[in-house]
Amino acid sequence: MVTIPVNAQLSGSSSNSVLVSSTDEVSVSGISQGKHSSDSFMAVPNDVLEREGYIMSYGSSTSGNSQFAVSATEDNTQVVVTLPQTVSSVTYNGTTYSAGQSFNAMLAKGESLQVQSPGDLTGTHIKANKPVAMVAGNSAADVEGLPEYYDSKSGHMQYRSTDMIQSAIPPVQAWGSVYQAAPIADRNGGELYRVLAKEANTVVSYQNENGTKISTSLNAGDYLDININVSYPITIISSKDTMVARFSKTANVDISESDSSMTILTPQERWSSSYQFTALDKPLSDDVPVYSNYVEIVAPTNKTSGIKMDGQEIHSDDFYTDWTEIPGTNNSYAIVRILAGGHTLYHDDPKIKMAAQVYGQTVSEAYAFPAGINLSPLGDMCLLWNMTVGDELDNDCDGQVDEETANNQDDDGDGLVDEDVFSNQVLLQNITSASIVKMV
Questions:
Q1: How far apart are CA 164 and CA 421, in angstroms?
Q2: Model pTM greater than 0.70?
Q3: H/E element holding 156?
């Protein structure tokens, strides 16, 4: 672990970025720690950075500043920042800009710009002439916190609390259309999911805790907040690629000792068969105990037996939550307790892909980050969905939408029966469905 001095913090434009180089491929996480405040992120390697993207952040009237930083990897990097319509104004280098306005910055290699606002900067559009790295979050987030109240069970006042949150912004090529996640360990007040679109007419669908399907259409730069008050495993599907963040909520939501964190979920298209990551030990504050650390795994239900942690099968005593099916899918999730330090997670069969999120919690603090993401070129691909009648999706990857009739026959000769049925038909019970990747 390398400690970065406090005077390296950003203020406007500065040369305070950090370059990590190695002779072989490595996994790099950034950790920000203050008194009773911490979060982390998974760094994105330079060779997959892009010239354009959108900011995922957080803001509320009871939070600190929504913020992001953009760092240049080459000299003479011209950056154009276009603010979202949802932020009232931003002041950068002494000039104030209103919602929807753009401003430019010229950066040298290793130089960064930082933008802060009391409003929410999610949906800010970044465009550069050379590849850039981006990190975003909030300086002191109060995520869906409750007003102060007296808790009769504990005999104490429950106050709002805030925590710094941050995540590295993945390149657009790493966005996807299917996301799955589990309830956060040791929390029972639910989670906040934020879905950000990069294209117009992006339809986002999910099921609420009652099993009701909810769909919303987004334009480029728009986002949807899915505020879950009762924790349950969730599947989020979009008609076009999106970025999805998960926020753990403020402590007083469920009288928890931990606090808010932010992580970017890994889409199913970008799952990997192996991960290397490091779990944290002790917070910066001396009066706070060590973190309780976990890794959350989502994998095909019939392939979980091949998953190894640090070269061994996962011991039954290490499961916080044993393998549990995610409703309506062929996948399951598990939450595993882990010790501080470095870990490897992999499947015996490298063709089997899974998702992994790492997080830790202690008094007044929490951190979270994705264990990794597969950034290999995907080529042309689509996903076979679990179908609902008339869902206006290409469920069988044949280039057609809702082309089948519910007649117990293979209408299009692809070996599947009633897998893409249009809306005025009754869905038969023998639908063949899947949630696997199919190359086309």
A1: 47
A2: yes
A3: strand 156-158
